[in-house]
Amino acid sequence: MNELISIIIGAIFVNNFVLTRFLGICPFIGVSRSSKPAIGMGLAVTAVMALVSAITWPVYHFFLLPYGLEYMYIVVFILVIASFVQLLEMFLKRYNQALFKAFGIYLPLITTNCAIMGVALLNISDDLSFVHSITFGTSAGIGFLLALFLMSGIREKLELGNVPRPFRGVAIAFITASMMSMAFLVFGSIQ
Amino acid sequence: MKKLQLFTQGIFSKNPVFFLVLGLCPTLAVTTSLENGIGMGLSALFVLTFSNAFISIIKGYIPEKIRIPIQIVIIATFVTIISMLMEAYFPDIFRRLGIYVPLIVVNCIILARADSFARKNPVNDSILDGIGMGIGFTLALMVIGMIREILGTAQIAILGSTIISLPFEKMMIMILPPGALLTIGLILAGINYFKIRGEPGE
Q1: What is the ipTM of this complex?
Q2: How many independent structural domains does chain B possess?
């Protein structure tokens, strides 16, 4: 139980995917202009991360490892992720129009999101068990959602502020992210 | 002349990091030192060049609808090759880059160049484009890595030996995650300043 809690706290705060591991920076900068799409993207990423952890773990441990094919993990993981995201999109389109309208547009972006591939790789390199992998995937997604949501709130306010011209747009977003990252460093020293 | 432009646009006017703002995950995560930046840049250069060349060779045979999965598998194959080569010959750098080596596969620059350039252009142009973009990416990583290493450790070390050492207080924050975001933010603002200089204000 303690281990689970430390995985959850670690993935959300101490080693936040965006602010300390720099995974998923592209959507973090691209989709954080206002909070509504930020929440949509964050929730879609969280769901996909949890499911991808649940799929890639058995693929690696029951399929690649016994047959000595570990060196193929990059190709296999990216294929699993790409086809899974495609399936999810088709499934949502067919059975849940409301959910598809809300999250559908973010799904194609997710395939090439380093955070998803990153969570699959970290599960393997940290040698986590199946339950721990799913916990890690879910909490890493929540950490991503948290960072994206905080960022979008700050950027909505920044729109109203008087930012110097060269800093407008992406530049100020990075500097803001840097301040947030400093704030998140504090969680590392609590442990 | 046009060939030369193909080559140089990746380095300057369309630099993937500074002008297109693509491929930021590895850019920010591994640039704690100049050496790591070079390692990551050269691996991306390798993958870019070979995936561009290969996709351009088979471009007539790829069905339009499933081109993205095919391109990703080709890229993943070259990433596997480079990660094995690095593990064998540069185990130190490989260990330090960690999961960011396999993550080259989801680097947006590589897929973007494959889909928007190599798919539509002849082989030699695609190779030139790959090399140009790769060098541009490497240079960007070197610049960021150098700034962070100098400010963060007051020295530059390559392959274990210190080559430059400067007498000032180390700024630890620069080699921690916030330093990466701060550096890229200030560089982008600097580039913007030169772009909009001379334009009338509002």
Answers
A1: 0.87
A2: 1
